[in-house]
Prior knowledge:
Blueprint: H1 2-8, E1 11-17, H2 24-33, H3 54-65, H4 71-87, E2 90-97, H5 109-126, E3 132-140, H6 145-161, E4 166-172, H7 184-192, E5 196-201, H8 208-215, E6 221-224, H9 232-241, E7 245-247, H10 249-254, H11 267-273, E8 278-280, H12 292-303, H13 307-316, H14 325-341
Parallel strand pairs: 1-2, 2-3, 3-4, 4-5, 5-6, 6-7, 7-8
Helix pairs in contact: 1-12, 4-5, 6-7, 8-9
The structure holds inosinic acid (IMP) and zinc ion.
Inosinic acid (IMP) binds near residues 173, 200 and 283.
Amino acid sequence: MMEQFTEALPKVELHAHLNGSLSEETIQRLISLDTKNTFTSAETVIAKGSKRTLKDCFDMFQIIQRLTADAESIKYATKAVINDFVADHVCYLELRSTPRGNSATGLTKRSYVEAVLEGIEECTKEHSDAIEVRFLLSIDRRLGIEEAEDTVNLAIEYKKSSKGRVVGVDFSGDPNARDGREYLEILKKAKQSGLRLALHMAEIRGLQRENIDLLSIPPDRIGHGTFLHEELPCEDIVRKRQIPLEICLTSNVKGGTVESFAEEHHHMHRWKNIGQPFVLCTDDKGVFSTTLSNEYRIAAAESGMTRQELFDLSKRCIDFIFASDDVKTRLRWKWDTWKEQHSSLFL
Length: 347
Ligand code: IMP
Ligand code: ZN
């Protein structure tokens, strides 16, 4: 069965927001740890077959973020999410999250970053053969340039001091909020400082002007890029530079920006048909109630990819990770060894 194959397949996850990735069990556990009972139960997961608007999704993120408002719960959440990915045979993970302070708990952006890094450190010690984890600091475009500058400065600092764990910056948040061009200079600064850039782009229509400017930096990977192919100069740039797209099938459909997974609706097919590099990702596996295995299964069902093609797709993701060439070499060896040991699955 394809389901068992995609589950067993070693995978790379490059687009996972920490707070959107919390499972229902982890959310329940965090609610039970919330001694001040500030949390009144609310919907934080979009059930199978249901859809919401993008605005509903951003409301959900804000609810979940109330549960990770101190260093201890952030560390707990980080470890829980990594464990979930290990269970789904993800061998390399780039986790991203928006550092935020909270005066009531004494949390600062710096202690937020430290808590995520401690979670990564402890968890990867436990699973050292199973997974490698890196961290991208997210800029929430809703919060303005000063917040973004703080985040990039922290990313620059932790790139040097986190033993290679902090590798880049993510640009995300509600695409209806502000003009992405406000962030151009600070994103350029991040890139010039050696940080790699994964930018959410064209998640909704009508962002052509910011898209062209953001592409000029250029980003190392593009999140979603849902409507980029409708904008000719943008498509050309993305193709010429061979910038990989992070494709999040379930997220797009449940978040209501794409009607269905089918070829006439979902942009994955178009990029695949023209040979553009892309990686399959979950985005927010908790909120969208999915797994990376499930995303591979959907991609296969909708595009007719064979097991060999799915293996090649998951191995190709290694080319686009932000970690060093040594890590890439190790991962490629892991993939090849897995294939040798599972050759019967390909017959
Ligand atoms: P956090 O950064 O770990 O708190 O994860 C939740 C945050 O990720 C949200 O508040 C958004 O800023 C961002 N995010 C999650 N999913 C999406 C998406 O599909 N588009 C844009 N931003 C997103
Ligand atoms: Zn995202």
